[in-house]
Specification:
Two copies of one chain form a homodimer.
Chain A: E1 2-3, H1 10-17, E2 31-33, H2 37-50, E3 54-57, E4 74-77, E5 84-88, E6 93-97, H3 102-111, H4 128-133, H5 141-144, H6 147-150, E7 151-157, E8 163-165, H7 180-183, E9 192-199, E10 206-214, H8 217-231, E11 235-242, H9 243-255, E12 270-278, H10 281-297, E13 303-306, H11 310-321, H12 323-329, E14 332-339, H13 345-358, E15 370-378, E16 383-390, H14 395-401, H15 404-411, H16 436-449
Parallel strand pairs in A: 2-4, 3-4
Antiparallel strand pairs in A: 1-2, 5-6, 6-9, 7-8, 7-9, 10-12, 10-13, 11-12, 11-15, 14-16, 15-16
Helix pairs in contact in A: 8-10, 9-12
Chain lengths: ~475, ~475
């Protein structure tokens, strides 16, 4: 076990105390980085006996302050537990340590012809255990479903040091309550995930991507319906973003020294990215070609670009994947990820712009303290991301946005967190998405697993 | 609310007290059939206050005695709550009462171009609420995944009458513990499911089915690997059965008056059924044709039949679907559904035959008290069904089979119940599949939700 000893300076602990947006700042003096499940167990047992609070931390890529201390909680970082434990090519069942990095695991699976059923912008640093603990959604959910369906088993250390082990990882097992489900999305509040068993699908041998420009959000919805019908079982992603997001990405790429190039003859108000994954490229290209013709004929798209090779495949994906990073370059970003019925999705971005405009914070074309408001997300899942780029994080601005943003979500019976989780940011607002009965049951669950309340306090469902 | 009054005879209650295999027999004097969630709530509140035990009952098609009283528990039957509440064609989200019958719901969805993500032999009488309460698996799991991934929300009445409502049914929602997951597969022990919100996929517009005869279980596995590679995203079912199962089906069909017809030129030791579902029939047929040629070339199959029309599609499926019914005609059936690694699956059937032969109960070719032992199941899910047809249910026979069958499963770290659940039949054997830590946590969950222990006592995880 490597513990930062007394000689470590405050600076050494900074990357563990701060989140990557530089929005949340803890003051912990202790980071422990255990190497085995047994060590995690011993640490938790000790902390539980002594009544010491602990924050579990994976890749620290969260967006709601869930993996940083609020005060001086002990940070238990999983980074030293990163091994792939086993992979069975017959069943596709992968077992790994919680600290394994998503991209590493996906690359490992790619070599065997399999794919990790989850993909995220943060894949280069986020960890599988953190993904499961936050029930991460991401770019492949449309095709492969949620982690509640793909995770087959977990190894979890409970607050008193007990190890709960369901790593056997059978595809089907109806022998009692499916306890592992409670840990998926529990944000480190009832146990620390140390191992994950998950079902990896066969990697598609053919993949294609296309990006369209469109003139209205109504057309985005129409294109979504045509795409589902035309591509059927090979549709693997359907993402949208608005022109404000696209402009930020172009600016960011230019600043990064990339040569300016015209992707679309006709730019639009909205953009849609469609990805297919299948087992026969001829069939897939034919389906995609038929779809394109139909969309053109019906004048649902203004322009379209189809990747011709691997390089273009990745550069088209970058238009979507670079949005969060580009927003970060434009200022301090207030990030909201919301579930609302698809027809209502974009109106929330418009309402937010109006609200900020009325408060004198945002002006069309720039010039206000809010530099930009962009909307993008996973249409297929009803999941909208709103990024609000401010000159800096500021209580005054926050009060204009929150709880207003949660109120307009609640009006549509949506979720105030589609995938980012509650963390410290949204803990006070859970009532906008959950009933008093649900919240009361959640408190009972927390008490059952963590009676002393040592795990990730002040967050999630506050008891 | 319709309650059977004092004038009902014992015979009237028989269908509620007995299970359909005629293996489990309760002695309840009271059946209640509420029409609304509010009525369910009032009944449970009353029973909880008075300390009266209640058995929730759906279509009563279970195989482990989970939906019948053990003694004189009050039967709460959901049959009068069978409405489809709403369906949204944009998102594919269906909301229905727990008592809705699976086949009715699937037919309703078919008219709209959607499919229920679950299919079972008992679809004509099983109910959605019961399917969720038992986490039913069935024939479409390979393609659409488990109910833990497809169920989006539940309405559940807790033992004290409180209504837990998460029917909003968003595709993504990370605001606190995903409590609904606990009810999926809880077998009516912590709450009574009254409403279900579930994601229905688009119904494939092209469907094909083929059945192959093979000479060994090793070839079954090889064909499975070739099929996954060749059919990729359009593979929707991969079922296998042994020649003993096939003989029972042929006999049953003949006794039912169907004209005898030769399905295969060359019969085999094993049979495999492959189903595809896609959005372009030309593409699907080409993939299937290529696969067939490859399997013939490599001599992995002895013979193959491809359905040419809807009638043949259904008659080929009947070869697989009629197995349980045909076994039932052959005697009193001991049914086991087990999860084990695919390479080990069939050896369990062989071990069971050996065991019964050594005990003088079974002879190759017939003549013993055990008339037949058949193996079939869902290779894609690692799920094996063993049916043992006896002259009658008998403790002596049972003692030869159990716990032996659970011991050989535990040796392979498998599950003693892949999909049927625990009920009263397997409650005593949970230790073969779950650790003491898991069982202890389950008992705590039960106590948290049902402190007086009124719901479905003597079953599942016995506190």
């Amino acid at each position: 076990m490597s513990t930062l000893d007394g000689s470590a300076s405050v600076d050494d602990l900074q990357p563990f105390n701060d989140d990557w947006m530089n929005k949340y700042h803890g003051k912990s003096q202790i980071v422990v980085k255990p190497k085995t499940t047994q060590e995690v167990s011993e640490i938790l047992k000790y902390c539980n006996d002594q009544g010491l609070a602990v924050v579990p931390q994976g890749g620290n890529t969260g967006l709601v302050g869930g993996s940083n201390p609020v005060y001086d909680e002990i940070i238990l970082n999983l980074g030293n537990m990163a091994a792939i434990r086993s992979f069975d090519e017959v069943s596709g069942i992968l077992q790994c340590d919680a600290g394994a990095i998503l991209e590493n695991v996906d690359n490992y699976l790619a070599e065997k012809g399999f794919i990790f059923p989850l993909d995220l912008g943060a894949k280069g640093s986020c960890q599988i255990g953190g993904n499961v603990a936050t029930n991460a959604g991401g770019l492949r959910l449309l095709r492969y479903g949620s982690l509640h369906g793909t995770v087959l088993g977990l190894e979890v250390v409970l607050p008193d040091g007990t190890i709960y082990d369901s790593m056997g990882g059978l595809r089907k097992d109806n022998t009692g309550f499916d306890l592992k489900q409670l840990f998926i999305g529990s944000e480190g509040t009832i146990g620390i995930i140390t191992g994950v068993s998950i079902l990896a699908p066969k990697r598609p041998t053919a993949m294609n991507v296309a990006v369209f420009s469109l003139s209205s959000y109504e057309d985005v919805q129409k294109v979504f319906n045509e795409t589902k019908a035309g591509l059927g079982e090979i549709l693997s992603a359907f993402e949208f973003f608005d022109k404000q997001a696209y402009e930020l990405v172009k600016k960011h790429m230019k600043e990064g020294g990339e040569a300016e190039r015209k992707v679309f003859e006709t730019e639009g108000e909205f953009y849609v990215l469609v990805e297919t994954g299948g087992s026969n490229n001829d069939h897939d290209e034919e389906k995609l070609q038929n779809l394109l013709e139909k969309l053109m004929e019906n004048e649902l798209i203004q322009d379209g670009v189809l990747a011709q090779d691997q390089t273009q495949f990745h550069s088209l994906w970058k238009l979507r994947e670079l949005i969060p990073e580009s927003a970060g370059k434009a200022g301090s970003v207030y990030k909201y990820d919301l579930s609302v019925p698809v027809p209502k999705m974009y109106s929330l971005v418009e309402k937010m712009r109006e609200r900020l405009s009325e408060a004198g914070l945002w002006k069309e074309g720039g010039g206000g303290r809010i530099r930009e408001v962009v909307g993008y997300g996973h249409i297929g899942d009803g999941n909208l991301h709103i990024n609000i780029c401010a000159d800096k994080y500021d209580d005054e601005i926050e009060k204009v946005i929150e709880p207003y943003v949660y109120e307009i979500v609640a009006e549509e019976r949506g979720s105030i967190s589609a995938e980012h989780g509650l963390g410290v940011m949204k803990a006070p607002y859970i009532g906008y998405s959950k009933s008093p009965t649900s919240i009361e049951l959640m408190k009972q669950v927390k008490k059952m697993f963590d009676p002393k309340g040592i795990l990730n306090p002040y967050k999630y469902v506050v008891v």
